TrEMBL record, chain A:
It holds the Pfam family FAD_binding_4. The keyword Flavoprotein applies. This is FAD-binding protein. It comes from Palleronia sediminis. Transmembrane segments: none annotated. Keywords: FAD, Flavoprotein. Residues 1-172 form the FAD-binding PCMH-type domain.
Automatic annotation (TrEMBL), chain B:
It comes from Palleronia sediminis. The keyword Oxidoreductase applies. Its cofactor is FAD. Keywords: FAD, Flavoprotein, Oxidoreductase. One of its GO terms (molecular function) is oxidoreductase activity. Residues 48-226 form the FAD-binding PCMH-type domain. It comes from the Bacteria. The keyword Oxidoreductase applies. Gene3D superfamilies: 3.30.465.10, 3.30.70.2740, Vanillyl-alcohol Oxidase, Chain A, domain 4. This is FAD-binding protein.
Length: 363, 480
């Protein structure tokens, strides 16, 4: 295992390296564990945190726990609600901020607050030629040059090794409140969630679990405002039944981390889809499933080795294989296949940023 | 402004190129007479002009694709054009280029309230996107100040912002998908009604690439439910530092205003004289606007006013009615008009960390004095996006060059303070040669590799974004 202590050391190693050099943070999110050949564990520390400017900069190997602690001390957070995948994937590593960025990991608030890539305002990386690249910066409005920040978010170690990442942070709300309706069919649940997200009441979570017969909506903000909005939201959605307050404080963290699928026997998939198509997709799923993002995200469990994508021809969206055996990942592909012209661009970028193929099999 | 030498081979082949283009789009969508081409010789950066070889105004993605394939085969540079409102020269033609304008592509292709999206042809103006959904209680959030005129195509090319992006983000945060036509005519769909990419985020890469990676003909945009109401408060201070500190305290307190606008004394005086808004004569003025239901607005404004009072303001004026709100915004909204009446001006848009506001404002004033020019500041303080207006006299020989030099120095100051050259206008040709102040050679190399992949012949929107010296070897290689 290569474990550089600095960006310069990493650059020298990559210039000299002959691969494969699969980069990893804490190995808590990769499709297949144990393939790491290059660790960012030596690149740690928050390098800048200005709460008044809503800006945090950290080295890529910084543990998420350290980031969360620093933010909590100032009453702030990352808006995209980064999930922890360790439990559902059965990993025991230390999740890092670089791993969050490399997988563009985003939780329930993603549908309104944006994904990790939307809060990410700067990156530093070393590419496959050993070149150190900086893009974006520490300001939240920046259109200077091409946006390689977005390119790196979710690039899963294909193009280079992240060394430092910058975020826009947000203040934590005073309080949060969850409304719950029972017994809605998938179609009616999606319709209710769409209606809720079309109100001006600023819903920041919308999930549906058919197994529990529950549909949840989350409101956040100042205490009095949240209470008032909850009453008006429940009234506006009375056509879908009664909306009761759900006091379960761990609900959204559980939904975020897919905790309901921990220890499941089957493979786990994450399907990104247009909300209005979600119920139709759900009807074709061969196992247990749950919706998030107002229907825009479906977590689905399938029998082991089952090709879920074959069940969903013409899907407007994509299905990512989250948890499966290494053999299934290799056979079906972790990521949804891209149409040929998109695949050509991806391959072109890969060949430019990693011409020697150092980062093979990095997903 | 140095531009590459036009390709004489292309210019001499004009008749043949025009003939081939007319076979695809028809005569009424093709402009090639010299006197008519003058209308396309520049965008809103009017100091630089060059009529193109021809202009094509297609109606469909298929036509755009066919035109680009012809240009690609004949090695003719293509300059994409939205509404021509770029302040950075983002659609300045070269003499050997074909301008492809999307002005005739204004259709709404789909609206879905359930999916909270709208799909449009990209010639549609920013404001008319909101116009298509506002009856149903929705709006499109990015609101550049040119929103009445500017096209979605240009918004995507420049990743445009606006006054309300502190809460809603900029174009890239509100863009779900595009139809992109590559230089060789290949049509690529990126994103769509769903969220996030299956693989690499090429949508995020295309947004803000200044029309150099492809021409975006259709776009899926996120629409949001309109807030119930909005109300501003006006706060005046006798020191720039204190106003800056007040901005930081408001942000830290957990209120997220939709806008925090900042004006300095030169700007306050000029706009007040012009608009009669009744602003106090002070060093710095903040306009802070919050949204929501009535009760929510009250609560947020109360908190903001409490914070402001701790900083000893010389004026604290809460709006109690739509008329008072309009009056508070009146001066700010007429700032550019007021300045335009006083003098010619260059509008910069460097961004800095909010904590650096006082230092950069002081530095800007010192630089202006050393050049013997006046600078007024009006900007989005919540996100640090500065808009120094450098006043000069276009009729005085040498004044424009002096103003441009001062502008470059101010932008270098922004970069040195931890910021960037441009927050929402784009690089274009205007800031092209300053890129080396912000980026290392390797940083630029990484960006140019992206260009190599999408447009290997370097034909799309030439001479923008990258310093000519940095791209010289690539352009020479492509020309062989």
């Amino acid at each position: 295992m290569i474990e550089p202590r600095s960006e310069d050391e990493l650059a020298a190693m990559l210039r000299a390296g002959d691969g494969p050099l699969v980069p990893r943070g804490g190995d808590t999110r990769a499709a297949v564990a144990g393939r790491a050949r290059l660790s960012t564990a030596g690149l740690t520390g928050i390098t800048l945190y200005e709460p008044g400017a809503l800006t945090l900069v950290a080295r890529a190997g910084t543990p998420m726990a350290e980031i969360d602690r620093a933010l909590a001390d100032e009453g702030q957070r990352l808006a995209f609600e980064p999930p922890s995948m360790a439990a559902v994937l059965g990993r025991d590593g230390v999740s890092t901020i670089g791993g969050v960025v490399a997988t563009n990991a985003s939780g329930p608030r993603r549908m309104v607050a944006g994904a990790c890539r939307d809060s990410l305002i700067g990156v530093r990386l070393v590419d496959g030629t050993g070149m150190i690249v900086s893009n974006g910066g520490r300001v939240m409005k920046n259109v200077t040059g091409y946006d390689l920040v977005k390119l790196m978010a979710g690039s899963r170690g294909m193009l280079g090794v992240l060394t430092e990442v910058s975020f826009k942070t947000l203040p934590c709300p005073e309080t949060a409140l969850t409304l719950r309706a029972s017994g809605l069919s998938p179609e009616r649940a999606v319709a209710a969630m769409s209606a809720a997200l079309g109100t001006p009441f600023e819903v920041t979570g919308a999930a549906h679990d058919p197994a529990l017969g529950a549909t949840w909506l989350r409101l956040e903000g100042f205490e009095a405002s949240v209470a008032a909005r909850a009453d008006r939201l429940a009234a506006a959605l009375s056509g879908w039944g009664a909306w009761d307050r759900d006091a379960d404080a761990e609900l959204w963290p559980r939904l975020r981390d897919a905790a309901d699928f921990v220890g499941g026997a089957g493979d786990l998939w994450r399907i990104s889809v247009r909300p209005s198509r979600a119920a139709g997709v759900a009807a074709r799923l061969p196992g247990r499933w749950r919706m998030d993002w107002g229907g825009g995200l479906i977590w689905a469990e399938t029998p082991r080795g089952h090709d879920l994508r074959a069940d969903l021809p013409g899907l407007e969206g994509h299905a990512t294989l989250v948890r499966a055996s290494p053999a299934t990942h290799d056979r079906l592909g972790t990521l949804h296949p891209e149409p040929a012209p998109v695949g050509a661009l991806t391959a072109g970028l890969k060949s430019r940023f990693d011409p020697r193929g150092l980062f093979r099999a990095a997903a | 402004m140095e531009m590459p030498d036009p390709d004489a081979r292309v210019i001499s082949a004009k008749a043949d190129i025009v003939r081939r283009l007319s076979a695809v789009v028809g005569k009424d969508a093709l402009i090639h007479a010299p006197e008519e081409l003058r209308a396309y010789e520049c965008d809103a950066l009017t100091a630089y002009r060059c009529p193109p070889l021809a202009v094509v105004l297609p109606s469909t993605t298929e036509e755009v694709s066919a035109v680009m394939a012809i240009c690609h085969a004949a090695r003719v540079p293509v300059v994409p054009r939205g509404a021509g409102t770029s302040l950075a020269g983002g659609s300045l033609p070269t003499a050997d280029s074909v301008v492809i304008g999307v002005a005739r592509m204004t259709e709404v292709l789909e609206t879905s309230h359930d999916d909270r999206l709208i799909r449009v042809q990209t010639g549609r103006t920013n404001l008319s996107v909101t116009g298509a959904v506002e009856e149903d209680g929705f709006f499109y959030a990015p609101d550049p100040s040119s929103q009445l005129a500017c096209a979605i195509a240009g918004n995507i090319a420049m990743n445009s912002g606006g006054a309300h992006c502190l809460k809603y983000g900029v174009t890239t945060n509100n863009l779900l998908g595009v139809t992109l036509v590559q230089m060789d005519g290949t049509v690529v769909e990126l994103g769509g009604g769903h969220m996030d990419a299956a693989g690499l985020d090429l949508l995020g890469l295309v947004c803000g690439s200044e029309g150099q990676l492809g021409l975006v003909t259709e776009a899926t945009l996120r629409i949001l439910p309109k807030p119930e109401g909005a109300r501003p408060v006006l706060i005046g201070f006798d020191s720039l530092e204190v106003a800056g500190a007040c901005v930081a305290d408001i942000i830290r307190a957990g209120v997220l205003p939709v806008a925090i606008e900042f004006m300095d004394r030169p700007c306050i005086r000029a706009t007040d004289a012009f608009s009669g808004a009744g602003y106090p004569d002070c060093e710095a003025l903040l306009i802070v606007e919050v949204e929501g239901a009535e009760a929510e607005i009250d609560q947020q404004l109360e908190l903001i006013c409490a914070i402001a009072r701790r900083h000893d303001p010389v004026e604290l004026r809460q709006s109690g009615s739509p008329e008072e709100s309009a009056r508070i915004w009146l001066g700010r909204k007429s700032a550019f008009g007021a300045m335009g009446q006083m003098a010619d001006y260059i509008c910069l848009d460097g961004t800095i960390p909010v904590s650096e506001l006082p230092r950069v404002l002081r530095g800007t004033a010192e630089l202006a004095e050393s050049y013997g020019l006046k600078v007024a500041n009006v900007f989005h303080a919540g996100d640090g996006n500065m808009h120094p207006l450098i006043l000069y006299d276009a009729n005085r020989p040498g004044d424009l060059a002096k103003a441009e030099d001062l502008g470059a120095d101010i932008l270098r100051l922004c970069v040195e303070a931890g910021g960037c050259l441009t927050g929402e206008h784009g690089v274009g040709i205007e800031k092209r040669d300053l890129m080396t102040a912000q980026f290392t050679g390797d940083d630029l190399e990484a960006q140019m590799r992206v260009k190599d992949v999408f447009d290997p012949d370097w034909l799309l929107n030439p001479a923008k974004v990258f310093p000519l010296a940095a791209s010289a070897s690539r352009r020479a290689l492509a020309a062989e």
